[in-house]
Design a protein that fits this description.
Keywords: DNA-binding, Transcription, Transcription regulation. Pfam families: HxlR. It comes from Oceanobacillus neutriphilus. This is HTH hxlR-type domain-containing protein. This protein has about 120 residues and is mainly α. The chain has 2 domains: about 90 residues, Arc Repressor Mutant, subunit A (Orthogonal Bundle), CATH 1.10.10; about 40 residues. It has 6 helices and 3 strands, in the order ααβααββαα. The chain has a 3-stranded antiparallel sheet. The radius of gyration is 20 Å and the shape is elongated. The termini are far apart. The mean pLDDT is about 90.
């Protein structure tokens, strides 16, 4: 089913890569071509249904190539397409940012939550 595309460039980009599962699939396929079962084992917490949906969407977007071997049972490999490979560097930049700054995000959350808790439950003297 075709869905009308957003006119906003940022929104369109986020629609492609906004799922955490998409990013994790990319990290796994960056190094090598993998079978479905290998992806399922390597991506902690992903369900079969979610992996299947993620791979189908990535294939639809032209970012992942699916190669089915005519064996019994059928074997399927997944790899990044040349278009998919163009997303590796932006994802690496985000990964580096996370490594450098995520502790600050966590500290900000802690301070915010503490201030909210204090505001909602002031101590009586």
């Amino acid at each position: 089913m075709y869905q009308e595309e957003s006119p906003c460039h940022y929104r369109r980009a986020l629609e492609v890569v906004s799922s955490k599962w998409t990013v994790l699939v990319f990290y796994e396929l960056e190094q090598e071509t993998l079978r479905y079962s290998n992806l399922l084992q390597r991506i902690e917490g992903i369900t079969k249904k979610m992996l299947t949906q993620t791979l189908r969407q990535l294939e639809r977007d032209g970012l992942v190539h699916r190669h089915e071997y005519e064996t019994v049972p059928p074997a399927v490999d997944y790899s990044l397409t040349s278009l998919g490979l163009t997303l590796i560097e932006p994802m690496r930049v985000l990964h580096r940012w996370t490594d450098a700054h995520y502790d600050s995000v966590l500290e900000s959350r802690r301070k915010f939550d503490s201030a909210q808790e204090h505001q909602n439950n002031p101590k009586k003297n």
